[in-house]
């Protein structure tokens, strides 16, 4: 299955090294502002200053603030898509279903870690834009398909009348739990250091549950 088209906005890649470095700093500054929930209030001048750049460079590379916002969302979604695609066939190196499930959930957690602000922005834009929401749905479908590929060697250990459906549904439940944990900073009373173990247990328990 090919990766979904996650393009939200087209920005020409700068030809000069200094300009590419400036663009990367602007993206990092935007992520920092999203993380502290200050992106909406920040001016272009403030973003440029935080990125050790200039207002002129900002407008030359990005055009406007909304383009920066869309690039940040696009980059987050692409990271998740790339991480998911890397799992294709990875389950073959695992010993059993439990180990393959842990590989899956650890991969998702690694992408989500430290990106609360970006995820919050993804959820907000999805609630406002049908077109963006469709992109998110495409990504979710892609993630589910790759998860099935990763767990393919152990489908006989999935106690469900439709193992692929169970994996796809279970992965969406896990991502929903990670959405809550990432945005709110908590998942019930679950300690942060227990997140990896318990998220893996959540998916494994569902897949090994009663028919």
Structure overview:
The longest helix has 22 residues, at 130-151. The two termini are 29 Å apart. It is built from nine helices and no strands. The protein is elongated, with a radius of gyration of 19 Å. The chain has helices at 17-35, 44-50, 55-62, 65-85, 97-112, 116-128, 130-151, 163-184, 195-207. The model has no long low-confidence stretch (mean pLDDT 91). The protein folds into two domains: 17-63, Homeodomain-like (Arc Repressor Mutant, subunit A, Orthogonal Bundle); 70-207, Tetracycline Repressor, domain 2, CATH 1.10.357. With 211 residues, the chain is mostly helical.
How much is the radius of gyration in Å?
Answer: 19 Å
Tally of contiguous helical segments: 9
Largest sheet: none
CATH architecture of the largest domain: Orthogonal Bundle
Task: Please tell me the total number of domains.
Answer: 2
Low-confidence stretches: none
Tell me the helix content.
Answer: 55-70%
Derived from helix and strand composition plus strand pairing, the structural class reads mainly alpha
- The CA-CA distance between the termini, in Å, is 29 Å
What is the third-level CATH name, the topology of the largest domain?
Answer: Tetracycline Repressor, domain 2
> How many DSSP E strands?
0
Order of helices and strands: HHHHHHHHH
């Amino acid at each position: 299955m090919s990766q979904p088209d996650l393009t939200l906005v087209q920005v020409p890649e700068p030809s000069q090294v200094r300009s590419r470095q400036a663009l990367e700093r602007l993206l990092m500054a935007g992520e920092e502002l999203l993380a502290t929930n200050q992106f909406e209030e920040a001016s272009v001048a403030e973003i440029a200053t935080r990125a050790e750049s200039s207002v002129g460079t900002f407008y030359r590379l990005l055009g406007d603030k909304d383009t920066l916002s869309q690039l940040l969302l696009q980059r987050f979604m692409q990271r998740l898509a790339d991480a998911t695609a890397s799992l294709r066939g990875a389950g073959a190196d695992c010993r059993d279903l439990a180990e393959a499930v842990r590989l899956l959930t650890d991969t998702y957690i690694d992408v989500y870690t430290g990106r609360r602000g970006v995820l919050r922005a993804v959820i907000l834009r999805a609630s406002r834009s049908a077109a963006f929401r469709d992109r998110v749905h495409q990504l979710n479908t892609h993630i589910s398909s790759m998860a099935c590929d990763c767990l393919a060697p152990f489908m006989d250990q999935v106690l469900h009348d439709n193992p692929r459906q169970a994996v796809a549904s279970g992965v969406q439940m896990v991502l929903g739990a990670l959405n809550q944990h990432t945005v709110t900073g908590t998942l019930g009373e679950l300690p942060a250091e227990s997140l990896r173990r318990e998220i893996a247990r959540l998916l494994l328990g569902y897949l090994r549950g009663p028919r």
